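sorry to bug you again but im stuck and you know this stuff better than me. what follows is a protein written twice so to speak, once as letters and once as C-alpha cells for the fold. id like you to explain what the C-alpha cell line says about the fold, in plain words if possible. anything you notice is useful, everything is just below.
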Amino acid sequence: MTDKSILIIGCFDTKGEAFSYLRECITNLGETVITMDTGVLAALPAFPVDFTAAEVAAEAGTTIEALRTRRDRGYAMDIMGRGAASIVRNLVESGKIKGAIGMGGGGGTYIALSAMQEIPLGIPKLCLSTLATKDLTRQVGHKDITLMPSIVDVAGLNSILRLLITQAAGAICAMAASAQLAGVSAKGSIAVSMFGNTTPCVDQCTALLREKGYEVLAFHANGVGGKAMEALIREGCFEAVLDITTTELADNLCNGICSAGSARLTAAGELGIPQIIAPGCLDMVNFGHLDTVPEKYKQRKLYSWAPDVTLMRTNAEENAALGKELAEKINAAAGQTRFVFPLRGISQVDSEGGIFHDSEADFALLESVEQHIDAKERIVKCDMHINDLAFAEVLVAQLLAVLKQQ
C-alpha cells in the first residue's frame, strides 16, 4: 500500500464537469487524488479541491482577485503556471504523488505542462489536450510527458470526451501502478552523448563499460537530448558522464538547429560528478534542408547528411571560440574532469580524405583549449581518430581512472 496519490491539474472554473468525471474515473479505479484548480474565474467545481486557484496564485506571489481584475489571459496563464509548478515541486519533495494528469485546451495545457516540469523522471505524467498533435516541444521539453489528443474540445461532456477521459484515467492509473522508479539509482549509471558521426566510438565505449558492469544511457546530441542529459545529471541519475559528442556547443555558437543552450556542459561540473569530455562533432553545425541555411553561411563548406539535415564545417575562428568555452567550463568543474582530444579527426566526416577533414581548424580548437585551461594535466591527446576502437578504449580507461580518483 502507498499513501501517494494521483495529482489532477486543471482549470476547474470552465471545465469542472469534465474534471469531475475524470476524478470519478480515477477514484473508481481505487486511487486517491489530489486536485489543483488553475482556473481564474469565480466558478467552483462540484467536488473537493485540495489546492484552490487562490492558493495557486498566492504561490506565484499575487492574488486571484488581482488576476481577475487585470483580465489579461496570457499574464494569468504565466502566473498560474508558475504557482502550480511551485506547489507540484513541494508535493514531489514530500513524496505525495505517484502520477499527474492534466486536461484542457491551450491555456489548460500550458499550465499543466508547466507544472509537470517539476516532476522527475519515472513519475508518470499525462495530458489530455486539444493541442496534443501540435508541436509542443518547448512546453514538454525533456520531460517524460505523455500527450493524448482529446479529439473534441474539453468543453462539456459528450460521448467522445467521456470515452477518452475514461481511457486517460485508466492510463495514468496503470502507469502509476507499474514498477516505480522511485528516483533513478545513480550507482553504476553512465551518461554518454552521441551522434551519427560518433556512433562507432559510442558503441565501443558502451560495450566496454557494460563489460565492467555499468549501465550506459546514450543521449542524442540534437539539442533536446543534450538538455535532457543535463537535467537528469542534476536529478542525480548518473555516477559519471562520458561526454563524447559536444557538438551542441557549435550549434549554440552559430545558431544551428541542435543547440542545447548555454547551460550545456555545466551540470556535471557544478555537481562535482566525474566527467570525460571529447570534442565529438565540433567540426559541424546542423541546419535543416539546404535552403534553410542562413545566407551568411551559404558559401561555407556544406554537406547534406540527409535531405533534411545540412551540416556546415566549422572554421578555425569558430573552433577557437569553442575551445575557449570548453576550457572555461572545464576550469569551473568541481569534480574530476579530463578533456581527451583525438588528433586524427573529431567526427566520421572529419577523417583523412573526409569531406570535413581540416587539420588546421581542429588544431585551432585544441590550441584554444590549451591556451585557456587552468590545469594542463586535464588534457589527454591521442594520435587517433575519434571512431578508432583504440580511442574508445582510451576514453573508458580515463573514465574509470577519474571514477577511482573521485
Q: What stands out?
A: The first helix runs from residue 12 to 28.
